[in-house]
Amino acid sequence: MLSIKILPVIVASMVLVTSVTRAEEKDSTAVSTKSEKSEKKESKSQTSETPKAVKQKQGEAASKTAKFGSITKTDEVYKTAFDAHELENGHQNKDKAGAFKGTVSGVFEPKGYTRIILNFDPDYKSAMTALVNSDNFAKFPEIKKLVGKEVVVTGKFVDYQGNTEIIVTSPEQIKIVEGSESKSDKKE
To answer: In terms of Cα–Cα distance, which of 128, 118, 112, 133 is closest to 162?
Structure first.
């Protein structure tokens, strides 16, 4: 008889324990979901607050200590370098090491500052060009200071959309011809 009276109490206790356990599980799930959501929000806010890597203009990233070398007109490299306007020679030497010379007529830095291009003629398509990618900007002195100066560019000739260029990765590949002064240098 005692077991008949205890049985309902045991069943009621089990139901109570089960419902309390489920309620606790539900609360802990809700708490973990809330904490996951707040972690996601924090992560998003940190992401939106973290600035994207903005490329700098070459002049802003330029080395304060690097210098371009110099070369004389009697130097063998100068004598054998193609004139920047000799496009056919550049095309014929595609994928070969060599050099070209000319006076820098302008420097073009496209939006996004991913590269800087040295032009050797106002009509850039009529002369070879030299290109520096943004990964190398900090290795060079300010490149825009080369405008008006005669230089020799060394490296491998490459074809880019029908134009011949040399991709320059170090300042040693650009040498200023001695006696080549820009108008601004003569004023100083």
So the answer is: 128
The whole-angstrom separation of Cα 91 and Cα 161 is 12
Report strand pairing: 97-103 vs 115-119. unpaired
Residue 140 and residue 58 in contact, taking contact as beta carbons nearer than 8 Å:
yes
The per-residue DSSP string of 16-76 comes to HHHHHHHHHHHHHHHHHHHHHHHHHHHHHHHHHHSPP-PPPPHHHH--SS---EEE-TTSH
Q: Residue 51: pLDDT above 50?
A: no
105 vs 148: CA distance, rounded Å: 6
Using CA atoms, how far apart are residues 36 and 114, in angstroms rounded to an integer? 38
Only one residue has tokens 């606790």, namely: 24
C-beta of residue 137 within 8 angstroms of C-beta of residue 116: yes
- Which of 32-36, 55-59, 85-89 has the lowest average pLDDT? 32-36
Residue 12: count of CB within 10 angstroms of its CB? 10
Phi-psi region of 60 (alpha: psi -120 to 50; beta: other; left: phi over 0): alpha
Judged against a pLDDT cut of 90, whether residue 3 lies above it is answered with: no
User: What sign results for the dihedral spanned by CA atoms 133, 135, 136, 138?
Assistant: positive
For 58-183, CATH gives: 2.40.50.140
Each domain of the chain, given as residue ranges in start order, spans 58-183
